[in-house]
Design goal:
mainly alpha, 5 helices, 88% helix, flat
Length: 128
């Protein structure tokens, strides 16, 4: 798949995810739908955030590093977007349950940092 097609398909997928998220917000009543509405809400929000954040970071990374390998930049931007979207969705879920506090945010940041460190450690060990 070429970079151009990746950007086109990722843009279409992200737009569809945002439309699905808006559809969930407009049509589902969380009191009546129960757990299903919450699962759809957080899943579509996660997909929307992953698509948006990965596209924004990819534009930023390719703009700064014009001579870098595009496939490497795509991998890194999608990985970062997934971590940030998972952290954001988790923080939103904690906030909806009135459990979000500074130590949960700190724990989220530490967990995301450890996961990123493990990815970097595996990546550097493969290069050697």
């Amino acid at each position: 798949m070429t970079f151009r097609w990746f950007v086109i398909l990722m843009g279409i997928g992200t737009a569809l995810a945002w439309i699905a998220w808006l559809f969930v917000i407009q049509t589902m009543n969380p009191v009546e739908a129960g757990l299903t509405a919450f699962i759809f809400f957080y899943f579509t929000l996660f997909l929307s955030l992953v698509g948006t954040l990965s596209m924004l970071e990819l534009i930023f990374r390719v703009g700064i590093r014009r001579d870098a390998m595009i496939t490497r930049e795509v991998r890194v931007s999608v990985r970062h977007a997934m971590l940030l979207a998972l952290g954001g969705s988790t923080a939103l879920w904690l906030s909806s349950n009135r459990a979000l506090s500074w130590y949960w945010i700190l724990l989220l940041i530490i967990c995301m940092s450890v996961v990123e460190y493990l990815f970097l450690a595996v990546q550097t060990s493969r290069r050697q």
